[in-house]
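ZP: hey, is the zinc ion complex queued? I don't see it on the tracker
AM: it wasn't, my bad. submitting now with these inputs:
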Amino acid sequence: MASPFPRKVHDHQVCIKSALGDADILCRSRGVRLTPARQRVLEIVWRQHKPTGAYQILDILRAEGNKAEPPTVYRALEFLMQNGLVHRIQSLNAFVGCCYPSEQHDGIFLICRSCGIAGEIPSMAVNDVVMDVADSNGFSLSSISLEAVGECPECRKPIQEHH
Ligand SMILES: [Zn+2]
Ligand SMILES: [Zn+2]
Ligand SMILES: [Zn+2]
């Protein structure tokens, strides 16, 4: 599996293209419509590997001359989340493109406080622990979102080289 933390310098157009291509195939196979508006929001979310806020998305759409209103953006995000193309990062109230949209997965986001990238780790094991904890406390879970903050391998690199 590829690192969830992309190299600082990489051809990000490839990431965007493959994400949009995957989304197109996925939506067709499910018989749901990736309308131009939904596709544009997905593309904006994928502009970077850092989570993007809904109002940031709105600003970009408006800068393009689009008369988008917040509900338009939220509805598009809702669709993208329902179809597993985008995840919400609760602690940042922001959205990031899913790296594994065609696979059923849970996991944890490792959020780098230096570069802001949220690396998606599809680890079922961490979710199992949370389910056990909820279970043993008589707590009925409706959803799990796991986020941890630290420093990603790309940001740690220069520091390691100085030693
Ligand atoms: Zn990229
Ligand atoms: Zn995902
Ligand atoms: Zn980083």
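AM: back. Helices lie at 12-30, 36-45, 54-63, 70-82, 124-136, 153-162.
ZP: great, adding it to the tracker
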